[in-house]
Design goal:
The chain has 176 residues and is α+β, with helices and mostly antiparallel strands. It has one domain (3-174): Aminopeptidase (3-Layer(aba) Sandwich). It is built from five helices and eight strands. It has an eight-stranded mixed beta sheet, with helices on both faces. Strand 3 and strand 4 (74-84) form a beta hairpin. Helix 1 (18-25) crosses helix 3 (40-50).
Length: 176
């Protein structure tokens, strides 16, 4: 999947993204609500997984790079996976480089991403999960038109302890 927005180009992660992915993922601020900061080996594995042929099966990840259209600067990543293909449900995720936070890039990329996912894969529902103390993430989900479905207890293991998370979703009929 590839698409452009007013300011961004979104395309599959590729080998040339390795340094940018590593720099972003090794940053503790970037990984705080996702998992431990990445090693170079983790980043290589991510790129290897991302460059495999994507199949429409449950839990295989589609990983995309977000880049500035004018400078080609790495902004962050988007992720999609079917969680229940038979029920037409998929999950999105996102990670932005700390240098590019609070500039509207996540909203711009994720809103177009969700539209493309509904259209391309005939989804009925897109979900997203975040740690409850990741306020920026759940606020983004709300700006995307997603609704909070509930709180999942001890659903995430981050920095050596379990954390509750929020589950958000948007239905095809709610997409504006």
């Amino acid at each position: 999947m590839r698409f452009e927005t007013a300011r961004l180009t979104v395309r599959p992660l590729q080998q040339s993204d390795l340094t940018d992915v590593y720099q972003s993922r090794k940053n503790p601020d970037t990984s705080k609500y996702i998992g431990d900061p990445a090693t170079i080996e983790d980043a290589k594995l991510c790129i290897k997984e991302a460059t495999l042929p994507w199949q429409v099966i449950d839990h295989q990840k589609m990983m995309l790079a977000i880049r500035c259209k004018t400078t080609n600067q790495f902004i962050g990543e988007l992720l999609f996976k079917f969680t229940q293909k038979q029920c037409h449900i998929g999950e999105i995720g996102y990670r932005l480089s700390p240098l590019h936070l609070s500039q509207g890039y996540a909203l711009e990329a994720a809103s177009m991403f969700i539209s493309h996912l509904f259209e391309q894969f005939e989804l009925n529902k897109v979900v997203a999960v975040c740690a409850i103390n990741n306020i920026a993430s759940w606020r983004l989900m709300e700006k995307l038109g997603m609704r909070r479905e509930g709180e999942l207890r001890d659903n995430m293991y981050l920095q050596g302890s379990y954390h509750d998370s929020f589950l958000y979703s948007i239905l095809r009929r709610e997409l504006q």
